[in-house]
Design a protein that fits this description.
Elements: H1 5-20, E1 25-30, H2 36-42, E2 48-52, H3 55-61, E3 69-70, H4 79-92, E4 101-106, E5 121-126, H5 127-130, H6 136-145, H7 148-164, E6 173-177, H8 180-184, E7 187-189, H9 208-217, E8 223-226, E9 232-239, H10 254-265, E10 269-273, E11 280-284, E12 287-292, E13 299-300
Parallel strand pairs: 1-2, 1-4, 2-3, 6-8
Antiparallel strand pairs: 4-5, 5-13, 6-10, 7-9, 8-9, 10-11, 11-12
């Protein structure tokens, strides 16, 4: 697909930012196929990382030998979630270091649902703010306890809860993943289990509809328990694990202490969303392995027009 003048301008701006900072990488999230020969003329090949919206487009892009393609299999998820997945994948593959500066190009304006859109936005991301203390070794270590596919789905859900809250209000919650049988011996229900009676398919957090339902459930007190297979097992659970031998940063509340404690005593991984800041922390073995901060508002490039107004401020 030929590049439009706006896309060319954005690519040139990304190149300029990358050279001036300098940035470690340029991440291009695309929903459509592009004229990749022209893209590679405008952007430095050694810094360019590409992630596509669909698996079909990813397979097509992998045919270009000069492209470094991130296979994130995100599906129809919001742009910020796909960006998080792409950054995690890049660090996991050691294509990015945790403190890297990244120029991101993507479609930030959803004009029509389910219709691919061209690139219209550019952002500058410092991974020290979003992926603190993360290393490829950490991801591999996490993957030994919980499959990375399941972990990604849980982290995506947690970051969305932290960024958006629910009905305009901030939401704090904890999701405990894996080693469910042992975790259940160290917690008790605070309320009814909203997942009881539903099939595994209806509780699979990789299903977008299930994730939306969990956002509502996350407003209730207590932790959500999720199996290694990504199936939600219980909610509204009070974690009653001893916290001896655990040291956390000042300012972290009881939810974080409970997340640290349950991962110290089991092989589970806890993903905790802070109600006050929206920050997401991943706990393993009683310590914070990964911290993700909500993404800042992106800088968007688009064409604007202004309506003429009369003296009372009404559009004419």
């Amino acid at each position: 697909m030929a590049l439009g003048p706006q896309t060319v301008a954005l690519l040139r701006a990304a190149r300029h930012l990358s050279d001036e900072l300098p940035a470690d990488a340029i991440l291009l999230l695309t929903e459509t196929d592009l004229d990749w020969d022209t893209v590679l003329e405008l952007l430095p090949t050694d810094k360019l990382l590409v992630a596509a919206q669909t698996r079909e487009l990813t397979a097509d892009l992998q045919e270009y030998n000069r492209l470094s393609v991130l296979d994130i299999d995100a599906g129809p998820t919001p742009t910020q979630e796909r960006m998080s997945l792409a950054l995690l994948e890049a660090v996991a593959q050691e294509k990015l270091r945790p403190g890297a500066d990244v120029v991101a190009l993507y479609n930030g304006i959803g004009v029509e649902p389910n219709r691919p859109q061209p690139i219209d936005s550019i952002s500058l991301i410092h991974l020290g703010e979003h992926l603190e203390r993360l290393s490829a070794q950490d991801l591999r270590k996490l993957d030994t306890q919980v499959p990375l596919e399941t972990l990604r789905a849980v982290v995506d859900l947690a970051t969305e809860i932290g960024r958006e809250g629910r009905e305009g209000k901030p939401v704090g919650t904890m999701l405990v993943v894996g080693d469910t049988k042992k975790v259940l011996t160290m917690c008790r229900p605070l309320n009814f289990n909203p997942f009881r009676g539903y099939s595994a398919k209806e509780r699979d957090i990789r299903d977008r509809r299930v994730r939306e339902q969990i956002k509502d459930i996350a407003q209730l007190e207590g932790a959500l328990l999720i199996g290694r297979d990504g199936v939600a097992e219980a909610a509204c659970m009070y974690i009653d694990a001893p916290a001896e031998g655990i040291t956390l940063s000042k300012g972290l509340g009881t939810r974080h202490w409970a997340g640290a404690a349950i991962t110290k005593k089991t092989k589970a991984i806890a993903v905790v969303v802070s109600q006050s800041s929206g920050s997401v922390r991943i706990f393993q073995n009683g310590t914070v392995m990964l911290q993700i901060e909500p993404f800042a508002r992106p800088m968007i490039w688009q064409h604007f027009h202004m309506d003429a107004t009369d003296g009372d401020g009404a559009a004419t």
